[in-house]
Amino acid sequence: MTGVVPPEPTIQTLSPFETGPDTPAGRWLRAFWQPVFRSEDLPAGVAKPITIMSEDFTLYRGEEGTAVVTQALCPHRLTKLSIGTVEGDSLRCKFHGWKYGPDGQCTEAPLQGENLIRRIRLTTYPVTEIYGLIFVYFGDGDAPPFPDIEKFSREHGHDMMSAPLVFNRVYRRYCNYYINTENTIDHAHVPYTHAISANPTLTKVGFSPDLAVVRDITVERLPYGVRVVDTDDGQHANSAVLLPNVMHLQVGQRIGWLENLSWRVPIDDESHRTFSIEAIHTDEEGAKVWRERQAQLQHEVAKYPLTEDIAEMIIRGEKTLMDFVDHPRLANIEDALTQQAMRFITDADRQNLAQSDKGVLQLRRMFMSRLADFIAGDPSATVSW
Ligand code: FES
Ligand SMILES: [Fe+2]
């Protein structure tokens, strides 16, 4: 009798969409450094609750400046440690004052014996703070080396750290992280999703009209992902997914050439955050104009609800995109709209992927095949790009 050949994995059986702690894709994403917060948003002495891949954690910054990530709940009676107070580089629980050092060890517990104090320890996670972002390793065993972003950019981009403008962005979307991951290489969405923000008669800022043209694409399979280049001359945009969840985008903009590395990090399976490092290669004058524009832009954006909430209003039929033509981040609302309207793909086999989805299809195949390699224990599946 011959053995039973296991069926080929499909997008249903080896889902990129589910990233909870015991899912295949969740385990794979946890094998890489993932950004969880923007450095400038976490002052010294502050603790915050964070949710990453459907698990809760506590993030705090000690008074000397070091960022620490621990389990969410105090081992004593399980209240949230994020409501506690930072003392030096330690965190004291708000409820009964048990105190934990940055290595998680309990160092004080009022009225308790030394034995108990020694026994109590929080789970903590390796943290690397670099390029304006706080990265955490949630996987098993020792943390892998941090990817050499500068070398990657020198070899595959425009040497982003040498650009006069390097900055970070973070935004949330109420949809599965993978929907945004594959949007990276879905150039066919641009003329339609961004029809308003690319139309200079309707909007002042947004895509250049030249970008929002239907073009065929060339799909390139890379050792670490999939890159898509516009077929005509590749001068408008080229974008890659660096497996499992990073975008590398290079695109011409009015003030210069933009290079963007963005991590799509699941909050849970129906929402995610994008953390990006962005660089604009421009001249002194361009950098000056950009900085002035940013200050003004923050002010304008603050007048509106959050982008992800605007998209929900439109999805519910209460508003239309035309109600937001003056929003300085209209292009982001347009993407949030189409992506949040999908929220979570429960049955990817029902989609009808077509010719213009050849990049999406290639990425799904490669994601599943590298994920299968990871599950089989292939160490190359956890090497960063
Ligand atoms: S619950 Fe934290 S000290 Fe009691
Ligand atoms: Fe888009």
TrEMBL record:
Cross-referenced InterPro entries: Cholesterol_7-desaturase, Rieske_2Fe-2S, Rieske_2Fe-2S_sf
Domain Rieske: 33-136
GO function term, MF aspect, one: 2 iron, 2 sulfur cluster binding
Keywords: 2Fe-2S, Iron, Iron-sulfur, Metal-binding, Oxidoreductase
Pfam family membership, one: Rieske
Protein name listed in UniProt: Rieske 2Fe-2S domain-containing protein
